[in-house]
Amino acid sequence: MDADVLIAGGGPVGLYLAAALLQEGVSVRVFEQRQSRNLHTRAIGIHPPALEALNAVHVAPAMVDEGKRIRSGMAVSRGKTIGTMTFDDVSSDFPFVLALPQFRTEQLLEERVLSLDPAALARGAKVIGARDDGGTVTVAVDSGTGATHPGGIATGALLVLADGAKSQLRDALGVPVVRKAYPDHYLMGDFDDGTGYGDKAVLFLEPDGIVESFPLPGGIRRWVVRLDVPAGTGSGAGHLAGLVHRRTGIRPDPATNSMLSAFSVRSVIAQRTVAGRTVLLGDAAHEISPIGGQGMNLGWLGARDLAPLICAALAGQPTGRQLRAFEQNRLRAANLARRQAEINMMLGRPLPPAPLRVRTAVIGAAAACPALNQWAARRFTMH
Question: Does the model's pTM come out above 0.90?
Answer without folding.
Answer: yes
